[in-house]
Amino acid sequence: MVRARTNDLNLVERAAKVLPAGVYGHHSVGMLPSGYPQFFGRAVGARLWDVDGNEYIDYLCGYGTNLFGYGFEPVEQAAAEQRRLGDTMTGPSALMVELAEAFVDMVAHADWAMFCKNGSDATMIALMTARAHTGNATVLVADGAYHGAMPWCTPRQVGVIPADRAHVVTYRYNDAASLRAAFEAHRGDVAAVFAAPYRHDVYADQEDLDLDYAQTARELCDASGALLVVDDVRAGFRIARDCSWAHTGIEPDISAWGKCFANGHPISAVLGNDKARKAAADIYVTGSYWFSAVPMAAALATLRQIRETDYLEKMIVQGQRLRDGLDRQAADQGFALSQTGPAQMPQILFRDDPDFVIGFNWAQLCIEHGVYFHPFHNMFLSHAHDGTVVDETLRRTGMAFEALRGSHARLSEGETSALKRRIAERAASSD
Known about the structure:
seven-stranded mixed beta sheet; four-stranded mixed beta sheet; Aspartate Aminotransferase, domain 1; alpha/beta; Aspartate Aminotransferase, domain 2
């Protein structure tokens, strides 16, 4: 099934002349199979359309920014009403206080909140706060974890100098002994431990949080005075109506939030306990758009939906329906999937596919059949992914699996070599 790409390819050509590398960052499709569109025209609910009018059921949800679906009316109405009053003004609106109060009420460990724009802003504020609080420099992060695109944490280190990462030390996620060893090696200088809600590295199966590791992180931070930071930018409010570690009974000192809590409107947050309050007040961080009122109105409306609806339970049910259906389809065609992570944040890889060739091939076939899956990044369901959407998804993926089995669907030798080269280059750039 060949889809029109005239407008998309024209924009790609134009972008290459005026944008570095065309489209940059994680929204670039340069690492994806050739059939992926780069530019989109509109999005509604669980669906989006590229600039050539091709429709997709979208399981990226704007890389996790949409929790209730694109254009969700209660949120858009709140944003529109505030836009008529004012957005980016000389100072914040009263909504800033209301939003901070709402977060403090909802998140058990939080005594205060700060707002910014991107997940990278939030994790940088968390790091600065930890260093200000402790007077120490070293930050411990899990090997392979993603905490943003600032020089201290970006996975691609072109343009980064050794001094930018001189005090960043890695440990193995979910490995309490590895974390203890990192603490011991930097005794007296650890400012913070960064941890994710669960292990969600790219190109890898996802891994649930190990309780012993989480308890060890809390104990080591308490004993040393370091701050425990949970990076909830990706998973916040997709696992719990609280910090994603809430089910463990272990509270962080700081959590970083972003993506979905304003249902696609640009805002992120840092939440902290009273231990870290003075340090957060002492650091200097700011942005001309950080206090914009429209995203805060959208966030308040989104938090209301989070509190008052069963969105989470429904996403889990539909995510499991999707997972079960894909497993059956794969088995029927002689393939085996490795589906890991929370059902509402699925990672879908193929077993016995070390070079990702089968997975990339299948992902491209899904695109051709109107399902936007990602071949190596975890994905997201929204509340808009209801039973009807999941049923339609499985009808389309069924056709993709049938095509995958056919020899005509195999990547050419040249395409396979290019794919392996791109994967190797990405791995090398992340070292």
